Amino acid sequence: MVSAPHEAMHRVFQEYPGLFTRLSDVLGLHLPPVASSEPLTVDLTENEPLERRVDTLLRIETQGDGPFLLVVEAQGKKDPGKTASWPYYVTYLNNKYRLPVLLLVICQDHATATWAARPLTIGLPQWPTVTTRPLVAGPHNMPVITDVAEARKDLALATLSAITHADNPDVDAILKTMSVALRDTPESIAEPFVELIAQGLGNRPAAQQWRNLVAVDLSFYTSPLSEEIRDEGRAEGRAEGRAEMLLSALDVRGFGVTDTIREKITTCTDPELLHRWLERAFSAETAEEIFGE
């Protein structure tokens, strides 16, 4: 199953193709500025019962050297199957479109990045017939952006940087920088970056840090993540209110509230379950009747 970080690592290029110009400079590959880009079908399946799809495929028009194809692959871990599939992608696309092909691999950990950067050869050890050299971006070569002004210069690059450094010990500072950089950005521009970062962090601990920053620094946005956080906050508020009402009802009925019962009530985050307990509290003869299934 495709993970959320996997999607974010390549989708950012679909949303912001110009990101590749800055990224190529960061990676030491100096290309002419991108004039335009066009998304192409990612389906590379032939007339055989074998489906092959790249993550993102863009036709890039430059201002000097003509067009080329950019294949973006998000790689979360080592996959021996890529030894065969990546050279296939490159040769198939070159044959289909008659254009140069550049394979870019985005990683979130050093081990995978090192593995992905190895040249892939087809042929004899003494004489490789085809060699595929992926261009790899990951925590080993992506800048750590903790300066707000730098982040604002290129929000797409800063977003990709945050995603590739999801496991960086300084990720809190990176995310705080992004939240401040997005604070004064029009919502229509900021919203995709907010969601891409959330998606790219997946279920890492940093994901909760980002949610906290969105809830505080970007609380005025109406992005899906912001609305989800608000809904959670409203549910927590309802749960706390009903827990207090239930404790009061038990006191009025004369039921002894033991430490175990108090903890059961105050740690419950389900407003509907608390509501059922509250209804039972007015008719139950014993505390066990209230909390029994």
Commentary on this structure:
53% of the residues lie in helices and 14% in strands. It is α/β, with parallel strands linked by helices. The chain folds into three domains: 4-137, 3-Layer(aba) Sandwich (Trna Endonuclease, Chain: A, domain 1); 148-221, no CATH class; 229-291, no CATH class. The protein has a five-stranded mixed sheet with strand order 1-2-3-4-7, sandwiched between helices. It has a two-stranded antiparallel sheet with strand order 5-6. Helix 3 links the parallel strand 3 and strand 4.
Keywords:
Rpn family recombination-promoting nuclease/putative transposase, 7 strands, 13 helices, alpha/beta, 293 residues, 3 domains, 5-stranded mixed β-sheet, Trna Endonuclease, Chain: A, domain 1
Quick structural gist:
This protein is an alpha/beta fold. It is built from 13 helices and seven strands. β3 (68-75), α3 (82-97) and β4 form a beta-alpha-beta unit.
Mind summarizing the main beta sheet? 5 strands, mixed
| Helix/strand order, N-terminal first | HHEEEHEHEEEHHHHHHHHH
Structural class by sheet pairing and helices: alpha/beta
| Helix share bin | 40-55%
Number of E-state strands: 7
pLDDT averaged over residues:
83
Radius of gyration from the alpha-carbon trace, in angstroms: 26 Å
Question: Could you list the spans in which at least 5 consecutive residues all have pLDDT below 50?
Answer: none
N-to-C span? 36 Å
CATH architecture of the largest domain: 3-Layer(aba) Sandwich
Number of helices, where a helix is a run of at least 4 consecutive DSSP H or I residues: 13
Enter the CATH topology name of the largest domain: Trna Endonuclease, Chain: A, domain 1
CATH C-level label of the largest domain:
Alpha Beta
C-alpha geometry:
elongated
The portion of residues forming beta strands comes to: 5-15%
Number of domains: 3
Protein name: Rpn family recombination-promoting nuclease/putative transposase
Organism: Streptomyces halstedii
